[in-house]
TrEMBL record, chain B:
Binds 1 zinc ion per subunit. This is Peptidase M48 domain-containing protein. Belongs to the peptidase M48 family. The lineage of its organism: Bacteria, Bacillati, Actinomycetota, Actinomycetes, Streptosporangiales. It comes from [Actinomadura] parvosata subsp. kistnae. Its cofactor is Zn(2+).
Length: 124, 317
């Protein structure tokens, strides 16, 4: 159940990110109902949770709220990745080892090494 | 005497041993063995230091009666005949020192494990929200414009690849890199790294633990490369590494050099012959000696004394 709710959070965020404008629970619900059977209260609960998590902002409109992502998906991803990987002092958390970058000298040394073993091209 | 020997070994293990191990040329040819050796060296240093303290504390009248003395002390304690006042203040202090060494090591590793677990849970929640599962790749694909490939260890272990990495790598290279990540997960490398990290934090002044951490970080990469190379051409792993290591560095990564990346690429292109059987056995024997050595030194004289005493009694019966 927790898993399903997590998936729903992701689906709803994706929808909201794709709209590029504030939307009501009713609007998201109708969008989701094109693919699946889902209750109004479920969508409302998940969106309220996303608001509490700080992913959405909302403002009252009539009797309900309209919701909008706080930042774009790209910006959110970048922020999350920065937080997770910049602290790679803790190697045990995420094993992100492909962060190393070669400096120009090293690249030159590498080019020499690769001349002996021509790399297969992208087409391979 | 025993205490002095153990203490002397502890000093050797924390000062000279790391220098010897760093110089070992064979470590790149047998990274897994080298990892075991480093961990065993760390374990033996902690064991010998704490056992040296215990050996100092346990009251012994004659050299070589440690275990017999210890067992007698335990029995005395069970019989409520043990008088704590009989032990000198020095003895208590030594026991306290032994406990502190062990507690410090355990809490250092524990702290790292807990922090890593929390961090991974946070990251997993973010991946659930932003990533999508690609069952063909067996990995989470994350829409992100830095080419990154990594894994998230733990109970719900997953491999992660960004869309930028997918764009810049040929499919065969993607498979090779993911095999490398799978090797990290299967090898439980995060636990090895947590131990190394935890010990280096617990004893920051001792070069053994700092060097062990640095070497282990490097060695797990070499090991994962070797495992990936069992099913993927080495040239693919090298090419993937080149591609990932020469791309634009993510803005948030501090300008770390590609020392390990370079060594890994070279190693994939010019594979060294693996260790011969005899060399491997020697290495394993060294690991075994490091692990049981301190305990053996602490216990053997006592054990022989015990046998001498009590077998003598047996003969009398």
């Amino acid at each position: 159940m927790v898993r399903a709710l997590g998936d729903l959070e992701s689906t709803i965020m994706d929808r909201l990110w794709s709209y590029h404008r504030p939307s009501s629970v009713r609007h998201v619900l109708e969008d989701l109902r094109r693919d699946r059977e889902i209750a109004y209260t479920t969508v409302m609960t998940v969106m309220d949770k996303l608001y509490k998590k700080g992913l959405l902002r909302r403002q009252p409109q009539g009797k309900a709220y309209i919701y909008e992502p706080l930042i774009t998906k790209e910006a959110y991803t970048a922020q999350q990745m920065r937080e997770s990987l910049a602290r790679s002092g803790n190697q045990a958390a995420t094993l992100a080892h492909f962060l190393e970058r070669l400096n120009p000298e090293e690249s030159k040394a590498l080019a020499a090494a690769l001349q002996v073993f021509p790399l297969p091209g992208r087409e391979s | 005497m025993i205490a002095a020997a153990l203490a002397a070994y502890a000093v050797f293990a924390t000062t000279l041993l790391p220098r010897l191990l760093v110089r070992a040329q064979w470590s790149d040819r047998a990274p897994r063995l080298a990892i075991s050796l480093w961990l065993a060296a760390c374990g033996s240093a902690i064991a010998s230091a704490s056992l040296a303290a215990v050996a100092t504390a346990v009251p012994t009248d004659t050299i070589g009666h440690e275990l017999a003395g210890l067992i007698e002390a335990c029995f005395a304690m069970l019989d409520n005949e043990f008088d704590p006042a009989a032990m000198s203040i020095g003895g208590w202090l030594a026991l306290l020192a032994a406990a502190l060494i062990v507690i410090r090591a355990a809490s250092g590793v524990g702290t790292v494990l807990i922090a890593a677990h929390r961090e991974r849970r946070r990251h997993a929640a973010m991946l659930r929200l932003l990533g999508r599962r690609d069952s063909e790749l067996g990995a989470i694909v994350l829409d992100y414009d830095e080419p990154l490939v990594y894994c998230l260890p733990g109970r719900h272990a997953k491999k992660v690849i960004t869309t930028a990495a997918l764009r810049s790598l040929a499919p065969a290279y993607v498979a090779a890199v993911l095999a490398h990540e799978q090797a990290h997960l299967r090898g439980r490398h995060h636990l090895v790294l947590a131990v190394a990290e935890g010990l280096s934090r617990a004893f920051p002044r001792l070069s053994l633990f700092a060097k062990a951490k640095k070497e282990i970080i490097r060695l797990v990469e070499l090991h994962a490369d070797d495992v990936a190379a069992r099913h993927h051409p080495r040239i693919h792993i090298a090419a993937a590494l080149v591609s990932l290591a020469t791309s634009r560095a993510p803005a948030f990564v501090l300008g770390a050099g590609g020392e390990t990346a370079l060594a890994r690429i070279r190693r994939m292109l010019h594979p060294a012959t693996p260790l011969r059987r005899r060399e491997k056995l020697t290495g394993m024997a060294a690991v075994g000696m490091l692990l049981v050595g301190p305990a053996a030194v602490a216990l053997l004289p006592g054990l022989s004394a015990l046998v001498a005493h009590h077998c003598h009694n047996l003969f009398l019966l």
